[in-house]
Every structure is written in structure tokens, then in C-alpha cells.
Design goal:
Length: 126
């Protein structure tokens, strides 16, 4: 296995909460997939879990070296939970195609949050 890229991101949870308050479903559906929204909304403080997932998508895009844009869209990256609760990355659409073209075997991600910040790191393995 070869590490093809690493990335990390930190986002203020207040920023995510304000975006949800200001733009509502328009923001949620632009950035997150239905399963991500449902998971977060099942929690006591959804914006904390959404902030960590937002940071994860940013970290993944940084690990790819592209940022969010042409090769990777917000909804091309999905953070799901494995049976034991660990986060797992699912690539869709443009991200899936781009990853295949780069020889990506796996995208690893770690999430964390406090009341003030959501954080994530990502490693791309080929």
C-alpha cells in the first residue's frame, strides 16, 4: 500500500449551525446526502455531527489535492458509519471515477468534534 495523499480540516460548529439556520434544507441538500442528514438529525445536537462530516469532506478533497470543485463535489463524498460505529468513506459519481483513475484503493477518515469545532483527517491509499 502507498499513501497517495493526506488531508485535514477543522470547522467551527457555529458556522454550520448558522448555515443550517440561514439556508435550511438548501444548505443541507447541497452538502450532505440523505443518510448523513438522517444520522445527524437522530442525534441531540445535529450540527456537531454535520460539522465533523463537513470537515471530513474538506479533508478528503485536500488529500486528493483537488479541493471541492471540478473533480469532487460535496455529494460525491459520503461519510457513513460501519457496524461498530467507525466512519467510512463512500465515493460516488465524479469522486468514484477520479479515485479509480488515480489508483485509489481506499480512503480512510477520522472524525472528531467538540461544542466549538468539527475536525477530520483523511488518508488516501493506493
Amino acid at each position: 500500500m502507498t499513501v497517495l495523499g493526506i488531508g485535514m480540516d477543522v470547522v467551527e460548529t457555529k458556522r454550520i449551525a448558522e448555515s443550517i439556520e440561514r439556508f435550511g434544507d438548501r444548505f443541507l441538500n447541497r452538502v450532505f446526502l440523505e443518510g448523513e442528514i438522517a444520522y445527524a438529525q437522530s442525534m441531540k445536537l445535529p450540527h456537531l455531527h454535520l460539522a465533523a462530516r463537513f470537515a471530513a469532506k474538506e479533508a478528503i478533497s485536500k488529500a486528493f489535492g483537488t479541493g471541492i470543485g471540478g473533480e469532487l463535489g460535496w455529494r460525491d463524498l459520503e461519510i457513513v458509519r460501519e457496524k461498530g460505529g467507525a466512519p467510512k468513506v463512500c465515493l460516488h459519481g465524479r469522486a468514484e471515477s477520479y479515485a479509480k483513475s488515480r489508483g485509489v484503493r481506499e480512503v480512510l477518515v477520522s472524525l472528531s468534534h467538540t461544542a466549538e469545532y468539527g475536525a477530520a483527517s483523511a488518508v488516501i491509499v493506493g
